[in-house]
Amino acid sequence: MNKKMLLAAALSAAILSGCQTIKEEHTQYLNREQNIVNVVGSVWRIDAKWPGEHQANRLAEHLYTSAVKFCERERQAMLPIRGSTEDGAKDGSRPASGWLEFRCQKGLDYRPEYKGLTGTFDVEDLTDFSNTQK
Q1: What does DSSP say about strands 43-50 and 77-86: parallel, antiparallel, or unpaired?
Q2: Are 60 and 84 in contact (CB under 8 A)?
Q3: Per-residue pLDDT tens for 58-80?
């Protein structure tokens, strides 16, 4: 009986602590900021801030995929121009932030065609051993 009560108490504590962690992650996700503005012509800039995130590599990947999706809505390709990311503070006082400038442009519609390897040789070159003698 004591084992069952101990197991139930441990399970309840694990569930409650897990719910708190999920709630914190959800709050941080909701507090993320992102906006896309037109710089000039077909050049766009996407900015984002992620509170609670201290490594900006996931943010950089998110900026890239968001830019690709933005251009794909217009059936265009995304060409990155320049960008930057900055890691957030580990204590959460400063969010991870980053920006990416990109251009939306029509695709080149390039379809490479493999034609195989081609070469020409003379049969006499293959049977002549004069080049191998010293």
Answers
A1: unpaired
A2: no
A3: 999 999 999 999 999 989 999 99
Neighbouring residues of 59: CB distance < 8 A, sequence distance ≥ 6: 48, 50, 53, 85, 96, 97, 98
φ, ψ of residue 39 to 5 degrees: the values are -85, -60
What pLDDT, in 10s, does the model give residues 16-46?
A: 555 555 655 545 556 788 999 999 999 999 9
Residue 55: both structure tokens together: 């490594």
Q: What is the pTM of this model?
A: 0.59
- Cα–Cα distances (Å) from 59 to 5, 34, 75, in that order, read 44, 11, 24
C-alpha 102/C-alpha 86 separation (Å) is: 18
Q: Rounded to 5 degrees, what are φ and ψ at 73?
A: -65, -30
Q: 């003698």: which residue's tokens?
A: 133
